[in-house]
Design a protein that fits this description.
It is a single chain. By secondary structure, the protein is α+β, with helices and mostly antiparallel strands. The protein has 2 domains: 2-230, Acetylcholine Binding Protein, Chain: A, CATH 2.70.170; 233-350, Neurotransmitter-gated ion-channel transmembrane domain (Methane Monooxygenase Hydroxylase, Chain G, domain 1), CATH 1.20.58. It is 34% helix and 30% strand. The chain is built from 5 helices and 12 strands. The strands form 2 sheets. Strands 1, 2, 3, 5, 6, 7, 9 and 10 form an 8-stranded mixed beta sheet that branches. Helix 2 runs antiparallel to helix 3, helix 2 runs parallel beside helix 4 (293-320) and helix 3 (260-281) runs antiparallel to helix 4 (293-320).
Length: 352
């Protein structure tokens, strides 16, 4: 029942977002082909604008759903609409007839070929067709779903913000042959199926894409989505348990150093609890070649717990040799030194 309820919620979100997109979209011509929609071959090879005059293209994207962000694999799963529009008034008078109202295959007229360069696996919801408006306005829209690669900088994990990018290269044209304008429908849905991230913004950028093999630049559209990780989960599941384990290891500073069994018992329990907790963290923290904020905190907590164990051994050893006064002084100073060091670790891990 829970699975069906969750699936219904995701489908409802997708349908709501899709409906919002369709409401924002301009009225498209009827799907039925009106009259003869055959296009002369010469119109498939040349741009609608004269040589030297860039073709203005309006592009935009609308994020319907964000399913998953995989820190270890540096990928994310998304569902989005992509729209691309331009004008080609030549289609209003093709051998004495207008193609307004036609739905043309993408390969039948001049149109850039879309290549998502950072896709891993994607699928399309519709056939690749272009709609011809009454004023020569052409519009191509497609819904893409799939997994995309994206380099993530996780040094601030779990307090990080990321920029997810979908890079769409426009083939069959040169970078200098087109100019871009952002479509007003660019944006994102209000709710997503992903639970541990919050989408905070989106934008469309334009930069050339260089193909080294032919030393040629192609126009590239980059749809960027700004996301922020929700920290509450890690505060409850990582930081709070570690803080409790650290505080448990400090209990030995208030126990008489002559009482060896409680001293060693509490210290050993804190160490074993920490080791067991670190094993469970292996499935939570990302596996990286550099340290994150969470890694700094975990390392600092580990050092403090083991040093508290060492202090317990030292104080009990001194008390057993008749130096009880020195052992008590060490315990009293440890009550100040250890929390101070812990405050420095917190500052280093979460602020600096």
């Amino acid at each position: 029942m829970a699975g069906r309820s969750q699936g219904s919620t995701v489908r409802r979100l997708a349908l709501t977002a899709a409906g919002a997109w369709l409401l924002l979209s301009s009225a498209l011509p009827a799907l039925a082909i009106q009259g003869d929609c055959l296009v002369p071959p010469e119109l498939t090879l040349s741009r609608p604008d004269p040589e030297g005059v860039p073709t203005e293209m309006t592009v935009g994207a609308y994020l319907l759903d964000l399913h998953d962000i995989n820190d270890a694999e540096q990928t994310f799963s998304a569902d989005f609409f992509f729209v691309m529009a331009w004008r080609d008034e030549r289609l209003l008078n093709v051998e004495g007839r207008s193609l307004a109202g036609c739905r043309l295959p993408m390969e039948s007229i001049w149109a850039p070929r879309l290549v998502i360069v950072n896709e891993r696996t994607t699928s399309k919801s519709f056939e690749d067709h272009i709609y011809v408006g009454l004023d020569g306005h052409l519009e191509y829209s497609q819904r893409f779903r799939g997994v995309f690669t994206n380099r993530l900088d996780l040094r601030d994990f779990p307090m990080d913000r990321q920029t997810l990018s979908i890079r769409v290269v426009l083939g069959r044209t040169r970078a200098e042959d087109v100019t871009f304008v952002q479509d007003e429908r660019t944006g994102f849905a209000e709710e997503f199926s992903i639970a541990d991230w919050t989408v905070t913004g989106s934008s469309v950028g334009y930069e050339p894409f260089r193909l080294p093999t032919v030393d040629q630049y192609f126009p590239q559209v980059t749809y960027r989505v700004e996301v922020r990780r929700n920290r509450a989960y890690y505060a409850q599941k990582v930081f709070l348990p570690l803080i409790l384990i650290i505080c448990m290891s400090w209990a030995v500073f208030w126990i008489d150093p002559k009482l060896v069994p409680p001293q060693i018992g509490i210290s050993t329990s804190a160490v074993l609890t920490l080791i067991a907790f670190l094993f469970s963290l292996a499935y939570t923290l990302p596996r990286l070649s550099y340290l994150t904020r969470a890694d700094r905190f975990v390392m600092g907590a580990t050092v403090l717990v083991f040093f508290a164990f060492g202090e317990a051994l030292l104080s009990t050893g001194l008390a057993g040799r008749g130096r009880e006064a020195l052992a008590l002084r060490i315990d009293r100073r440890s009550r100040i030194v250890f929390p101070t060091v812990f405050a420095v670790i917190l500052l280093y891990a979460l602020v600096l």
